[in-house]
Amino acid sequence: MRRRVALAALLAPLLLAAAPTPTTTPAPAATPARGEVLLLVVDGMINLATADYLKAGITAAAEQGAAAVVVQLDTPGGLLESTKLIVKDLLGAPVPVIVYVAPSGAGAGSAGVFITMAANIAAMAPGTNIGAAHPVTDQGENIGSDMREKVENFTASLGRTIAQQRGRNVEWAEKAVRDSVSITEREAVQLKVVDFVADNLDDLLAKAHGRTVDVRGRKVVLNTRDAPVARQDMSVRQRVLDLLAHPNIAYLLMMAGLLGLYVEFTNPGVVFPGVAGAICLLLAMAVLQVLPINYTGLALIGLGVAMLVAEAFLPTFGVIGVGGLVAFVLGSLFLFDTPDSTMRVDRSVIAGASLTLGVYALIVAWLVVRTQRQPSRVGAEGMRGKIGEVRRVVVAGRRDNVFVHGEYWDAETDEPLAIGDRVEVVGVDGLRMRVRRHPAKEG
């Protein structure tokens, strides 16, 4: 991936060198693009895995000299940050890009509007729709009042900019954001939101053939009729990231990891919770690297868990535990609260994770307190009160050999004892214990 990006960066100056100068140099003649067509299929939410997939596909198409890249699109929308990355790649693509909203019944909602309009050629299949680009949170809820106007204005300006650059309907692009309007494929053609309607992929390539598009300042004539089509699917890494790149899933993975490690630290030797927790935490870290996070929120979560662990070992009577739980909840609320992000962790997920961690911490603290209140079961203190039996009298009335707790001990006593007498341990001094006669006598 990095080598491909580096190669594209090296080729960029050569491609830009062929662009016409704005004053004296005449524009170069349009040249037909030759080669196969690379097909990329996007079916689902737009996230950073989708952005990485499209970027890699466009880079591969440029390396292979493809005639064009076709992005078959069906999406209800997605993350604004990922959409901006995709739009940037489409507007600056070194090869012609065709976005095809398909198959029938598909739609280009929200983020899909900007991706469709950013293509060199935009087309739709019969029975599809496009629109409803009003920004909302990843939960489908309205953005809070403090951020709503800012995000809406930015999104509307993004739509206008894309429409102006690609010669599409600027007014409709803004209405799609501010009024959430949605239109059919026929209406989209009439309003000049897309270029045409295509029944299938072959029809799409036939109708795109011969059209002249602007690719980084060069005029390129599409040569796509009967061109061979090669489909490129997501890599395994991209598929895993696509599955996990959601705030709720990333948060749950992090909570599972922290809880697993917490169980392992408070119960050393259990092994499985520690192993599972480490795996979940590493997966969460991989996902959080591609999601916009608030590091203050992440630090609060870490502090909260550390305080809950400390509560199990320090006699603070719940003060540190309550503080840790408060820090944990606040960190969860702030985790994705960044100025440019519309993502949030679902409040029910935060409540469930906080309740689980709090209840477990409470149980561990209760078990620790109960254990501390129990008499010692090991060492000299653990032997006090044990019942044994005299097995041999060494010095009558002063020293005997007794059998206690599965072991033979030299014992001292102030009273005469006989073989078979039951004795009670009253103290231990080194390897010798003091005993006294026990009232019950072995029958």
Q: How would you characterize the overall build of this protein?
A:
The chain has 443 residues and is of the alpha/beta class. It has three domains: 2-236, 2-enoyl-CoA Hydratase, Chain A, domain 1, CATH 3.90.226.10; 246-373, no CATH class; 379-437, OB fold (Dihydrolipoamide Acetyltransferase, E2P), CATH 2.40.50. It is built from 15 helices and 17 strands. Residues 1-33 and 138-142 have low confidence and may be disordered. The radius of gyration is 36 Å and the shape is elongated. The termini are far apart. A six-stranded parallel β-sheet has the order 9-6-4-3-2-12, sandwiched between helices. The protein has helices at residues 2-17, 48-64, 80-91, 111-117, 145-166, 170-178, 185-190, 201-208, 236-244, 247-266, 272-288, 295-311, 319-334, 347-373, 379-383, and strands at residues 31-33, 37-43, 68-74, 97-101, 107-109, 121-124, 129-131, 182-184, 196-197, 212-215, 218-222, 229-231, 387-395, 399-404, 407-412, 422-429, 432-437. A hairpin with a 3-residue loop joins strand 13 and strand 14 (399-404).
Give the SSE layout:
Blueprint: H1 2-17, E1 31-33, E2 37-43, H2 48-64, E3 68-74, H3 80-91, E4 97-101, E5 107-109, H4 111-117, E6 121-124, E7 129-131, H5 145-166, H6 170-178, E8 182-184, H7 185-190, E9 196-197, H8 201-208, E10 212-215, E11 218-222, E12 229-231, H9 236-244, H10 247-266, H11 272-288, H12 295-311, H13 319-334, H14 347-373, H15 379-383, E13 387-395, E14 399-404, E15 407-412, E16 422-429, E17 432-437
Parallel strand pairs: 1-11, 2-3, 2-12, 3-4, 4-6, 5-7, 6-9, 15-17
Antiparallel strand pairs: 7-8, 10-11, 13-14, 13-16, 14-15, 16-17
Helix pairs in contact: 1-2, 2-3, 2-9, 3-4, 5-6, 10-11, 10-14, 12-13, 13-14
